[in-house]
Write a structure and sequence with these properties.
The complex is a heterodimer. By secondary structure, chain A is an all-beta fold. Chain A contains no helices and 9 strands. Chain B is mainly beta.
Chain lengths: ~110, ~120
């Protein structure tokens, strides 16, 4: 199972919006509405930010939103803040009943 | 409060074995599916294995299939990962991550335990 494809890095200035893409295939991202997104700060466990493509768990800022089109899912962060600087990973359910992560995207807030 | 606490990591030689544990508390353990996820030093997350709440459905990632065995003891609220034929590329922090209560996402994670495979 190949990892989902994410850009290695993205950056933005405070207050701006950024979007991180996550590209898979019809056997994972495109086939199911089971894409989740995780934020990870250095030395910390991942934190769930988005589940089932576009749903936010309680306590996650509404500045974070998710969507999907075809085989590509996206995470958008609006009104960038310094605390958003972290690594972000997408994860999808697959046709083999396994899960697969993206390679991760490092977000830099300029 | 939901807690997941991994243990059992350490230094092991290539070809050796290690058994990781994940002790759960704060929820009805048998009601939830759980996963192992690992992260090599400086690298991204890699999904390793899944076990259903009852223990009768199990899945593995291709890189560990045939070498790793996931299991659980619902009476002890514990999850295990038996790792055999370890390779240098298995060096990573291993996390247990619970499914639910939010759809397909892993909301609860442990703090991780480091496994180092080296001679």
């Amino acid at each position: 199972q190949s990892a989902l494809t994410q850009p290695a890095s993205v950056s933005g200035s405070p207050g701006q919006s950024i979007t991180i893409s996550c590209t898979g295939t019809s056997s994972d991202v495109g086939g199911y509405n089971y894409v989740s997104w995780y934020q990870q700060h250095p030395g910390k466990a991942p934190k769930l930010m988005i589940y089932d493509v576009s749903h936010r768990p309680p306590g996650v800022s509404n500045r974070f939103s998710g969507s999907k089109s075809g085989n590509t899912a996206s995470l958008t962060i609006s009104g960038l803040q310094a605390e958003d600087e972290a690594d972000y990973y997408c994860m999808s359910y697959t046709s083999r009943s396994t899960r697969v992560f993206g390679g991760g995207t490092q977000l830099t807030v300029l | 409060e939901v807690q997941l606490v991994e243990s059992g990591g350490g230094l092991v030689q290539p070809g050796g074995s290690l058994r990781l544990s994940c002790a759960a508390s704060g929820f009805t353990f048998s009601s939830y599916d759980i996963n192992w996820v690992r992260q090599a030093p400086g690298k991204g997350l890699e999904w390793v294995s899944y076990i259903s709440g009852s223990g009768n459905i199990i899945h593995y990632g291709d890189s560990v299939k045939g070498r790793f065995t996931i299991s659980r003891d619902n009476d002890k609220s514990s999850l295990y990962l038996q790792m055999n034929s370890l390779r240098a590329e298995d060096t990573a922090v291993y996390y247990c991550a619970r499914d639910g209560p939010y759809g397909s996402g892993h909301y609860y994670w442990g703090q991780g335990t480091l496994v180092t495979v080296s001679s």
